[in-house]
Amino acid sequence: MTNALGKTSLPNDTAAANQPAGPTKPKKEWVGRKAYDYEKYMNKPSGGTGAADESHAWASNAPRYEWDGEFGDVPPVHAELEKILFQREFAVKGGENFSQLLVEVTQVSEVKVNPIKEFKDAGLHPVVLDTITRLLEYDAPTPVQSYVIPAVIEGKDVIACAQTGSGKTAAYLIPILSKLMGKWKKLAAPRPPSSAHMDIKNSGVRAEPLVLVIAPSRELALQIFDEARKLCYRTMLRPCCIYGGAPTGPQREDLFKGCDLLVATPGRLVDLMNQPRVIALDRLKYTVIDEADELVQDDWEESLGRIMASGESNANEDHSFLMFSATFPKNARILANEYMSTDYVRLRVGRAGSTHRFIQQRVVWVEDNLKQGALKDLLYTLPPARTLIFVNSRRMADLLDDFLYNSGLPSTSMHSDRTQREREDALRNFRLGNTPIMVTTGVSARGIDIAHVMHVVNYDMPSAMHGGIDEYVHRIGRTARIGNRGMATSFYNDRNDDIGDELTKILVECHQQIPDFLQSKMPEGELIFEHDDNDDDKESPEGLPSADAGPNASADAGAGFGGDSGSNGNDGWKADGNGEDEEAGGADLGGAW
User: Fold this and answer.
1) Can you say how many angstroms the Cα of residue 431 is from the centroid of all Cα atoms in its chain?
2) CA of 518: how far to CAs of 6, 512, 546, in Å?
3) Taking the complete model, does pTM exceed 0.85, yes or no?
4) pLDDT (tens digit, 9 = 90+) per residue, 497-542?
5) CA nearest to 205, candidates 278, 149, 112
6) Which of 43, 126, 215, 302 is most buried as measured by Cβ atoms within 10 A of its Cβ?
7) What's the CA gap between 546 and 544, in Å, rounded?
8) Are residues 357 and 565 in contact, defined by beta-carbon separation less than 8 angstroms?
9) 319 & 414 share domain
10) If we measure between CA atoms, which residue out of 390, 472, 383, 490 comes closest to residue 439?
């Protein structure tokens, strides 16, 4: 039964309550499920350096444009490599709403920059401009790119707080590579011989990168590396990626081939910094901290301090620091004040910790013991689509993956207890669509940018101890990237009351439907969001009024999924207590199980 608040009262027969209430078969066919290949991973631990590990095609060994001593200043086009690097079906393209993705950019610092409206206005090197317009097919810069690109071109240190999916990675890689493009012969470390038969262990060189990008997770590091491989095409600058979980042997050998741009997780970088034969940071011109708020909260302070200090040791003292983050907490401000120049540029793109209207957010009341059936109903009733399902524990990720697989659905799971090989394989198969349903913990919530993720499900809502409302925003940001549309469904019950107030404000801000059980939390008057984003490092105010939506106010949030998401009409799907699902031109996802 359902009470006046839309909450489900449990029947006496608990076993029956756990059975899925909806259809027994999907309305439309998913791809065939694939059995988990346990033999593939047996007796092949990811942390060692044995032959079994090193023969594996690690993501850090992905193809890239390789330096050849016979090239002139501008290397030739490589048609076959272009097909590998710029596969259209796996690229996240600006969606039909990209032109409406107009958010207010606030220049917080006293130092201001003039934004660009088109890439051709930025004074980029012709090779870099050709890559982003012809191969990547970027039509226009995103808001964060409009400001960061000219700031880096002018040689400024930069702090940028931007929403997830805003194009941050390209915002810093494009100008950095453009500025280094014509100077690599003067600035770069000696290159190894280009012979294909070279003994790399004996003839290799020490890695002395010009650019260092630090990321908090392995998955984000590989995501940035993938973007760097594309943007480094024909620049003569060689990107590399090092991260924990994978054996160090192949990563060292890759560094011995030369490294101009290094993407790294802090732990593995510090390990290799202790091996002077392998890596030195004396030539650094740029240090980029991506997802800085995550790094300063994960006990990386000591490692990060050592890495940042290394960036100041280059002989010419012309080093630039760039910091990107969804929020700008006190620890991140302290880090910035210690290492950045006094005339740095600080930008806020939209409201810190906010999301946008092109994600249709649906919050459904589901008691814990009914979640499996509710999820099965959800996946069976909606058209098959690439779907990310978030849970709060590694054990639940595996249990839910097993449940979905045994229900005939093509699923996989990824979490920190998986070996690095398993994590890379899971992400690869999800990206390729072989297993279009992935159950994961927060390990994927930050930065992962996969094309065509149409649906995010919060099977477990993030509690305060799991990141709270900020984690919710990061999770749902895996869909509706760069002007595309997507849907986020969240299972909510009494255990999630600690984020109910902030969740309701997010829904109101984005003009989403407010379910009955959250109506009592509707704010009165102007929306006020709590955040820790002010400049002084004393007591933070309890909250500041949200930034004016500016040009966003004209964006039509009603098109696409579900029509007018600001209404209380039916606009999705629903399942009633008899197990029959109703398609209603839309339907009511604000119901309950």
Assistant:
1) 13
2) 10, 12, 21
3) no
4) 999 999 999 999 888 999 999 999 998 877 766 655 555 543 333 3
5) 278
6) 215
7) 6
8) yes
9) no
10) 390
